[in-house]
Amino acid sequence: MGNKTHGKRNANAAGQSEAAPEIPGQVVLVFQGGGALGAYQAGVYQAMHDRKVTPDWVIGTSIGAINGAIIAGNLPENRIERLTQFWNGVARRGVDAASWLMPGLLPGVFPGLANWSRDLAIVTQGVPSFFTPQPGSWANIQARVGPERAAFYSTEPLRETLSSLIDFDYLNHKATRLTVGTVNVCSGRMRYFTNRDAPMDVEHVMASAAFPPGFPSVRLEGESYWDGGIYSNTPLEAVLDDRPRNSSVIFSVQLWPSSGPEPESILQVMSRQRDIQYSSRAESHLDRQKQIHRLRHVIRELSQYLPEEKRDTPEVQALLGWGCGTTMQVLELDAPAFDNDDLNRDIDFSSSGIERRWAVGYEDTIRLLERAPWRETLDPMEGISVFRMGSVDAAKDN
Q1: What pLDDT, in 10s, does the model give residues 196-247?
Q2: Alpha-carbon span 36 to 62, nearest angstrom
Q3: By the 8 A CB rule, do 256 and 275 touch?
Q4: Closest CA to 240 of 383, 111, 82, 49
Q5: Which of 4, 20, 330, 335 is most buried per CB count within 10 Å?
Q6: How far is 378 from 384, CA to CA, in rounded Å?
Q7: φ and ψ of 26, to 5 deg
């Protein structure tokens, strides 16, 4: 994986000599959860890094929290190297067993068997630098083993990996803001942890990646937390509801398509169901936020029609505080679905799958940065605009 990734960087080295683009407001990266699909996010960040677009704030859930913590938890000059180390570490290399036993037969005679063999290896063996099986859990799913062990896999390898790749002292100096999404196991409430408000450590990132029942919950402040993706896999609300509000250009990276073709087989139905589930109502979130943001702008405009003596009273000032004139430009990058993707594409940790997703994330983001949609004029009463960039790879495949 590393060779192709670095080759892509060298091929675009000319971009590194260009001046950084002028982007109005804070630059925010929003990363969904999606397991192995998160290699696309690494490619997105690499393109931004090469074009000198530095995020002020990274928000992530699950694999998005892991990528985000590696970015925010390292000096800018070390980030690509650390991301590469992580993804090289989780990549599964070599020829799968079925391909070795029946070379050349799989594509035509046994369609899907190569993916099945790959998935079986991940399920039974895990990923050594990420998660490993807990045989006792497989043997008796009714055994009361405690919250920290009630899972099919141990994520202790991930704790060691993240501790070696993230400088938490640097992270907590707040050069780049980091927010990770979790859900409280007992209350079922979403909670975002951010280094702006309190120091963070490896447990916060682990909690955001604790997807049940595969991975165990993580205890924070005396309570158990799971992966926030089971509640909201697209943590856009963290920036749109932030206070104080700041005008932002938000790079929202979607790993699961919210729209797609009508399925014609049970397998396609199951795959489409996962897409809808994990896209997590991103469209409805944006529609709601557009309504709220318009009301904030309306409140701001109404203040001009109030007599000055009324406008300056504490009671009216408190009401006017709900208004604002900030703008939110959401630039949505949609990761493609590849022809050989299957139901379990989020555990496709094959080196070829990671290489391809990283490279496409890079190419799509370069196209987006060259398009520069933040230059477009916004309706002053709306406040939120959405620009969607489909993947060039999806266009080729479809």
Answers
A1: 999 999 999 999 999 999 999 999 999 999 999 998 888 888 998 898 889 9
A2: 11
A3: yes
A4: 383
A5: 335
A6: 8
A7: -80, 145
Q: What angle do CA 324, 328, 334 make, to 5 degrees?
A: 160
**DSSP string of 152-178, one letter each residue:** SEE-HHHHHHHHHH--HHHHTTTSSEE
Instruction: Report angle CA 77, 83, 84 to the nearest 5 degrees.
Output: 100
Cβ–Cβ < 8 Å for 61, 33:
yes
Is residue 2 predicted with pLDDT exceeding 50?
no
Task: Mark 4-26 as b/e (b = at least 16 C-beta within 10 Å).
Answer: ebeebbeebeeeeeeeeeebebb
Tens digits of residue pLDDT in 163-192: 999 999 999 999 999 999 999 999 999 999
Distance between CA atoms of residues 65 and 5, nearest Å: 21
CA distance 390 to 368: 10
- And the tokens for 316? 């009216």
| Residue 274 CB neighbour total at 10 angstroms | 15
Q: Pick 101 or 195 by higher pLDDT.
A: 195
Contact 299, 323 (CB under 8 A): yes
Helix (H) / strand (E) containing 338: none
| C-alpha–C-alpha distance, residues 286 and 292, integer Å | 10
> If we measure between CA atoms, which residue out of 31, 133, 36, 9 comes closest to residue 90?
36
